[in-house]
From TrEMBL:
Biological classification of the source: Eukaryota, Fungi, Fungi incertae sedis, Zoopagomycota, Kickxellomycotina
Family: Belongs to the THOC5 family.
Species whose genome carries this gene: Coemansia pectinata
Chain coiled-coil ranges: 83-117
PANTHER family named in the record: FMS INTERACTING PROTEIN (PTHR13375), THO COMPLEX SUBUNIT 5 HOMOLOG (PTHR13375:SF3)
Chief location bin: nucleus
Pfam families registered for this protein in UniProt: FmiP_Thoc5 (PF09766)
GO biological process: mRNA export from nucleus
Gene Ontology cellular component annotations, sorted alphabetically: THO complex part of transcription export complex
Any one Gene Ontology molecular-function term assigned to this protein's record: mRNA binding
Record keywords, A-Z: Coiled coil, Nucleus
Domain of life, source organism: Eukaryota
Protein name: THO complex subunit 5
InterPro entries xrefs: THO_Thoc5 (IPR019163)
């Protein structure tokens, strides 16, 4: 589930709503000034000829303000949800990284322990490697591609020599 909300879309929505709210507030101020002027026996501006017109205009303005307020709250909730999801994803990735790092440390510790561990073949008195390569029959030297296989061949050769 991808919940990313582009920042420019959110800021555009907020800017548009803010300008609409500013226009509505200017309208309310204009109506309030007209009412105050009307009580001072000055004529009301055009479009606000009667108290019913004023009431209708003010009511519709406040309805519009409530709609914009609701929209702002919904946008905020959406943004908070997307930020929360991104935080959870980040936390999950950080935890996964920490687990991987601990796993690497554990494996490295096991490798170090294994490398320090003494084995019995280190104490066996074998003929030197060079001498083995010179004196051993070819069937013992067929598969000595790795140090491990070379050691196994030397051990087999030593067993055969001691028998």
């Amino acid at each position: 589930m991808d919940c990313e909300v582009p920042a420019n879309t959110t800021s555009t929505n907020i800017s548009a709503i803010a300008s609409q709210i500013e226009a509505l507030c200017d309208n309310v101020e204009r109506i309030a000034a007209a009412i105050v002027n009307g009580t001072n026996n000055q004529p009301l501006p055009s479009g606000l000829d009667s108290p019913q017109d004023i009431l209708h205009t003010v009511a519709s303005t406040f309805v519009d303000l409530r709609v914009l307020n609701r929209q702002l709250h919904e946008d905020k909730a959406t943004l908070n949800a997307s930020v929360g999801d991104l935080k959870r994803k980040t936390d999950d990735l950080a935890l996964e990284l920490e687990n991987k790092q601990r796993e690497v440390l554990y494996i490295q510790k096991e490798i170090d322990t294994t490398q320090r561990q003494e084995t019995i073949y280190q104490t066996i008195d074998l003929i030197p490697e060079q001498e083995f390569l010179e004196t051993a029959p070819d069937d013992f030297k067929q598969d000595i591609t790795t140090p491990h296989k070379l050691m196994l061949s030397r051990l087999r050769y030593e067993i055969k020599q001691r028998d």
